[in-house]
Protein 1
Amino acid sequence: MKIKAVLESFRLAETFTIARGSKDVAEVVTVRVKASGVTGWGECVPYARYGETGESVVGEVASMPAPIDRVSLIEALPAGAARNAIDCALWDLEAKTAGKRVWELAGLALPGPQITAYTLSLDTPQNMGQAAAKHGHRPLLKIKLGGEGDMARLEAVRQGAPSTEIIVDANEGWSAELYSELAPHLVRLGVTLVEQPLPADNDGMLGEIERPLPVCADEACHDRASLPALLGKYDMVNIKLDKTGGLTEALALRGEALAQGFGVMVGCMVGTSLAMAPAVLVAQGAAVVDLDGPLLLAEDRDHALVYDDRGVHSPQPELWG
């Protein structure tokens, strides 16, 4: 078995901005695991929020012994981007070697298309209102917030897309006081979910203040070990493979979160169709799906995922799984 990682860049269709900064390219790490003439593929997105860089993730992948399997991988690496790419590549390798699809190996039903959110990045109220009008035909918009002027942004987006379902993501950018002030207006404007309003390491007030609409943990939820600290503060968890460290833990987290009474959202970083492909399996039956990464790109992988009126479809075997 040989494991190789390379850092690649894919141009975005437009500058993408959240509360923590902006970018014009998606920087991803592509992992290939080759054994007996068969190659499995995986992709991850290093995230500075967790101290990851492209170089550090490539180094983590290079440090892995070969051969390795999905069980020993969990023991060898912590949850994060590097483990995600290797885990997904191992699933792909196993599927190709067995001549089956990954969902068959995982004991899952045939995945169907899932309606996904489309993300509007943080901008001026005028620009966000124009973007909302442009994408108002979509059934679900996700709005990036997290700064001064958020109320004006929300009003502009709702005016631009009067009939579209809206969820918002503050990316840890609010205080408890600001959330309490904004919450009634979120309800008034028909917002159905707020994602990570407070910093993950300072979110205790969510267990004490009123939550008039569902609050979803993103940066506060990584894997199953995160769940006990979320009880009483969050109503949902956002499962991202770059946080769980791969499809293996993502499926386990989904099962445990549902068993503990959390709603499930399945999200993504800004990556290519190769990164989204395994997440489509986790997204089956999720309350909210946010797998729009490829829709934000100016260029994508060969055999890219299909997005249409029914949502994002499961991958073709030429792409993954």
Protein 2
Amino acid sequence: MKLFHAPPSPFVRKVHIAAIELGLIDELELIPIAVAPGMENKDYAQKGNPLRKIPALVRTDGSVLYDSGVICEYLDARAGGGRILPGGGEARWTMLRDHALANGICDAAVLIRYETWLRPEEFRWDAWTQDQWNKVNTGLECFEANPESCGDPNPDLLNIAQIGLACALGYMDFRYDERNWRGSYPKLSGWFAEVSKRRSIAETMPDAPAK
């Protein structure tokens, strides 16, 4: 299988972590790809994701899956099913909800990056950026107030919601370390310190960001 990826992406990292947790990492060939707003990449749109988003997974039969959640669920099924996602019942809905919250934090944080790094300064919309920060903060507040949603940081396998949360917090460190999120969310900070000891988290940390 081939995974179109860019290491800084928290969504790519989610798939990478899931593959390590599920014992499938050796089946993935990582294909670097450059995508960004305003960058037309017709080749990737044809071979990977028509929306030019990452990640995209080319399966052994040549068919392509996109969206990190879809790819993670496929990897889970390939590894036997019911491993990082429950097969059914209330636990599945709770986990998918928590995963959606973690994913939303990532979405908002990435959009802030686009607005404050890629958009020319004279066209930046400060109120919109602040609204995205509010989404990040209310998402983190929800996990802080409901630590059961984070789960055990030392399980046999991380579940999809835990993987998504680790990626969101890791992206905050990677792009916005100056905001010191740990000072506002001590329970999340402790959870992240523990989960970061896992091989899947430690080996997928992106390089230091460009300033």
Protein 3
Amino acid sequence: MTLLPWQQKNWDQLCNYRVQNRVPQALLITGSKGLGKQNLANQYAGSLLCEKKLDNGFACGHCHSCLLLNAATHPDFMQIQPDETKTAITIDQIRSLVTKLTLKPQFERYRVVIVNPADKMNNAAANAFLKCLEEPAQRTVIILVTDKPAALPATIVSRCQKLAVARPDKEIVCSWLKQQEVQDDPELLFGLAQGSPLLALRYANEKILTLRNDCFKAWLDIAKQRSHPVIVAENWHKLPESLLIPWIASWIIDLIKCCYQIKADNCYNYDLIEALQELSQQIEVKGLYEFYDLLLKSRQLLDTPINKHTMFEEILIKWFELNQRK
């Protein structure tokens, strides 16, 4: 494990907790997706468990504790996440955790629990989890990780020390992407991933730009009446909605910018700017804002059992109608 370049300030804060002998019993790490919050939590866990940590606070990687941690057999390290077949962290998982925490740590250092994503605890699990915070176990550090802190009960949030991982500057992300030897334009990846470095890297590794370009062409064909929204929705519901909704949202944001004649350099999709500028000349700005509101509502429904096919039909039909207004 290595620290990601934009996490140094966060790491310094974590090291200060230890240096000042003020290691929090409960730590809440927040920040948008793709910033490496899990990596940061793992680094901190390794540091707390290590018997011979380095001067920079990192785990040595060679002591008995580090070898156990690397082999995923450390008795004082626990990771709580949804089971593979489920979407939520259940009350049974939390009850099992509470039982384990009644026992003393097996080593002389800390015991560390990472809960990620913490917002996936269902109501019953969250209520049971409060016991871990209200009655902290001996030498135990609980690290909660989430990109949706508002989804956590206030009773949990209020009992945690907060650590927010901020989005890094474009220059830092683009430099890091070049070090990863990505073939695509780093600045374009940065914009498409809306500043999320790990998401940008994923886009590059999975050749997502090709898929995005195909989807944009279909979206453009609907606007120009070359394709029917229902047919496109049939194809799109098989694709990851976690990609499609943000893509459409970025196209709408850029369309609004085009309506106000903002420079292409300030757009997410500057490689598509000619098509977007052409569209902006035949579309109402008010309608774009209304359509963007629909996208925001749709994004909020992604974690619910909503019919994704129907959702995309509604979005694309609205898009078709928006382009027919005079």
